[in-house]
Amino acid sequence: MSDIFICYSSSDRALAEQLVQRLRSAGWSVFLDVQTRVGERWHKAIQREMDAARAFVALWSARSVDSDYVLEEAEYGKRKGVLFPAFLERVEFPYGFSRLHTADLVGWSGEADHRGLEQLVFALRQQLGDRAATATPGAATPSPPVVRSAPVLAAGQTFRDQLRSGGEGPLMVVIPAGRFLMGSPADEPERFDSEGPQHEVRIAQPFALGVHVVTFDDYDRYAEDSGREKHADQGWGRGTRPVINVSWDDAQAYCQWLGGQTGTAYRLPSEAEWEYACRAGTSTPFHFGSQMTTDQANFDGRASYNGSAKGEYRQKTVPVGSFPPNAFGLYDMHGNVWEWCRDSWHGDYRGSPDDGSAWETGSSSDRVLRGGSWFNFPRNCRAAKRNVFAPDNRYDNVGFRVCRGAPIEPLPAAPLNTAPPKR
pTM for the whole thing? Predict the structure, then answer.
């Protein structure tokens, strides 16, 4: 049985086989239908492989989007929640697949450093874990998609810590170490003076950040266990929507409770960690480029930025994960809700740390927020934009996400529960 099942058209076999080699070089086992043994009923072999696969990669091209076989296989992966599509050609999305973030392999000819390939491999690493150091190419190495017990987790891996009161904490992803330019350049449209001077920051150790902001589901569990007040949802709904009307003090209390529940130190991210994670290797105003539309984030779409198209103004939060993630696997880094950071407010970056740590010295008791919200114009949702509130302020467009420092070691937990005639 294989880790990855490839859904493709026979007209794209050459590229599909190159992709298989790249994925196998990462240590994963991959099934391509040409592997069906002579004398074996191909439809039974394919069904068996689809049942066992922990990730499906659908390769969209003019031929594959018109193939019933490819669409059926891709739909199977989508129902399992493990479909990772990629464009080989500029084609319209097949019906029912347009809301899935899709890697761009248009023009790819097998090179290892192609941006679209890197994004696809990163996403698969989040799902399958990193096998490169331990696996034999082509050999199946099953493991759960979300790691719950490991010595030290690698960049891109996700995990949840078990709560002593029952259930699990927020889904976390490991962010790699690296360097970046913090703040905005002087020529970035609609920048603020507080975003400068731009300076290099070195993140020396990996850290873990919440894949999503803390939701009402997460926060209500804390409120029930600690006897705290449940915060109002403005009538928009609870569940997987971001918890709102939380102060910096509330967020600190939640992190302290989460640490006590898991036996490990949770905290708010530093302002530098937040921006580094948001950018995910990019230097543009948004992690998806120099413009932003309401198909990419939840903000006041009545205004445009840098020539982008105007869009809708939803006037409220939306459930987390409603838009595509960035290259680090983080959702909603732009818009939806402002996110509290650990740092005290300073009017600019003169004298700021260059090691990614929180800047907590100074005379101000106010705290930093990042990311913008459903209420804000796009200029206020840029990666470099900084905001400031008093630590006891509560608003319906403010939330937070949690962070863990290195090393990333989740607590031990109990085991959880010849080609066929097609295409």
Answer: 0.64
